[in-house]
Specification:
single chain, mainly alpha, 0% strand
Length: 539
């Protein structure tokens, strides 16, 4: 019965974590991704971005996967990505610290009630916040259940006999705790479980070290199939935690003695150890992050570029079977979208680093997009006469999307790239506020392109609706940025005056890109009658 109660409490804790993460993603997902993408200009900014994102998502693994996807797409440099994960690990430790405060469990009914009320309202933000509050309330309830479940274990004769053996074999205890964190897919859950047990001080510190190590294994496995940049990030995070554990393991008893006299307002040695370990690891490793990134670049080498530049899925034999031909054309269009994303990434990289070198690839990629777009149009024009009406409509949707992607390529090649090249060539510098506004627009555009690829592939109505909503948000961001730029001009800022036309041109081009990207959602929403032909208000 004790094992069942313990398992149920852990299951509720993990469920609450998932609800909180999913709710925050629903409510603030795009904003958290923007914070992670934009806040990496400096080391402290990257650290704070990782910390805030993890506090929002309640999962350092989720933050690691976000950072890995950004690193793979060239949106974050390797050094900054590692600093993000240092902040993410501290964010998990702070979550455990906050949850362990005495009396905080009394807030659970209030959180559940408010979350339920908000969850019944319309709107993604309110629903998401409600879901997150319910998840947080369930986490607090689960901690009470954990305390009740482990109460019999504290007085158990079997546990009293087992703990001295485990305390005499710290490496085994370390691996055992790492296994628990791995099975729970959460170092936070493992630490909170350890915090409920009555363990010898040194053993409690060792178990916390193991929980940190096990939590770093999961992102490595989840990014195993991604590019070298993503794998470097998670492997580096695992290596950093492993080194920290190996250094701290022999000193666990001394660390426990010091932590017991530390005036930290948190209940339990395990929570203190978790917080202090991640603080010490962050600031101890920070000066060596650049060296670690260079070593990882040598160890995990970039994949060779695929020399196959022509279409791979436009098979002649499939033309007589329309469903196969459409599937092949769709895969080819997704590849075109990936090429467009690469063009956008390289342009933003040149913008960030004030270096025209990444732009050299943009013109070549644009030629590839033009060539593939023409090949797809020609291929679909030869679709067999036996195609049904639905299949012909799908072919038109594919053509519309690839034409819009080709327009995006033109905007990047003939608009954004020359604008960034002009910025670099003339040595122009945006004001700090202006730079941050433009970089935010870049990140939003990159994320919307990824969402458009998902909409094209899945034809999910809710994702399509969100994409159109983000198009409106982009338009508002562009207008607000232009207004703030004009205010800076009136204040006489030299940087704003020198870059005035450039600032507005980049804003305009990014807005145009988003308009083309969002068009993939229109046929899906139009089928359900969710679009109107005109935005003019009726008389």
């Amino acid at each position: 019965m004790t094992i069942l109660q313990l398992g149920g409490a852990v299951a509720l804790l993990l469920f609450g974590l998932g609800q909180t993460r999913d709710g925050m993603t629903e409510a603030f997902g795009i904003r958290l991704r923007m914070a992670l993408g934009v806040g990496t200009r400096t080391g402290p900014g990257a650290f704070l971005s990782g910390l805030v994102t993890t506090l929002g998502l309640q999962s350092s693994t989720a933050t690691a996967l976000l950072a890995a996807s950004f690193a793979e797409r060239g949106m974050i440099r390797g050094r900054m990505a590692q600093i993000i994960l240092l902040g993410a690990n501290l964010g998990t430790a702070m979550t455990a610290w906050l949850l362990s405060w005495g009396g905080v469990g009394a807030l659970a009914p209030v959180l559940l009630l408010v979350g339920y009320v908000l969850g019944r309202r319309r709107g993604a933000v309110q629903t998401g916040i409600g879901r997150a509050l319910i998840g947080l309330g369930l986490m607090l309830v689960s901690l009470e259940l954990l305390d009740t479940a482990v109460a019999p274990l504290r007085d158990s004769a079997q546990l009293a006999a087992f703990l001295p053996m485990l305390d005499a074999a710290w490496p085994v205890a370390l691996l055992m705790a790492a296994g628990v964190a791995f099975l729970c897919s959460s170092s936070l859950a493992a630490v909170l479980l350890v915090a409920q047990l009555s363990l010898p001080p040194g053993l409690a510190v060792v178990m916390v070290l193991g929980a940190n190590l096990g939590g770093a294994v999961i992102p490595v496995l989840l990014t195993a199939g991604l590019g070298a940049a993503a794998r470097r990030l998670t492997i580096g995070n695992l290596a950093i935690r492993l080194v920290g554990c190996l250094l701290a393991l022999p000193l666990a008893a001394m660390i426990a003695a010091l932590l017991q006299i530390l005036p930290l307002p948190a209940s339990g040695l395990a929570v203190k150890a978790h917080l202090v370990f991640n603080l010490a690891l962050a600031f101890g490793i920070w000066p060596f992050v650049g060296l670690i990134s260079r070593l990882l670049e040598r160890w995990v080498e970039d994949e060779e570029q695929d020399p196959q530049l022509g279409p791979r899925w436009l098979e002649e034999d499939a033309l007589q079977t329309p469903i196969l031909a459409l599937a092949g054309a769709s895969r080819e269009v997704l590849a075109v979208g990936d090429t467009i994303e690469r063009m956008l990434n390289q342009t933003r990289l040149a913008f960030q680093q004030n270096d025209p070198a990444p732009l050299a690839e943009v013109a070549e990629l644009e030629n590839r997009v033009d060539r593939r777009q023409q090949e797809i149009k020609t291929y679909l024009s030869r679709l067999g006469s036996q195609a049904t009406e639905d299949e012909r409509r799908r072919a038109i949707t594919i053509l519309d999307y690839v034409i819009n992607l080709e327009h995006v390529g033109d905007i990047i090649d003939k608009g954004l790239a020359p604008e960034v090249r002009k910025k670099v060539g003339l040595g122009l510098r945006f004001s700090t506020e202006g730079y941050q506004e433009l970089d935010r627009m870049f990140v939003m555009t990159q994320e919307n392109l990824r969402m458009a690829q998902t909409v094209f592939m899945t034809r999910d109505r809710e994702t399509a609706r969100r994409l159109v909503e983000l198009k409106v948000e982009i338009r508002n961001v562009e207008r607000q940025s232009a207004q703030r730029h004009l205010f800076r001009l009136r204040e006489g800022l030299a940087a704003s005056r020198e870059t005035s036309s450039l600032h507005l041109d980049i804003l305009r081009d990014l807005k145009r890109i988003n308009a083309h990207v969002a068009s993939v959602a229109h046929p899906i929403l139009d089928e359900d009658g969710l679009l109107v032909e005109s935005r003019l208000r009726g008389s």
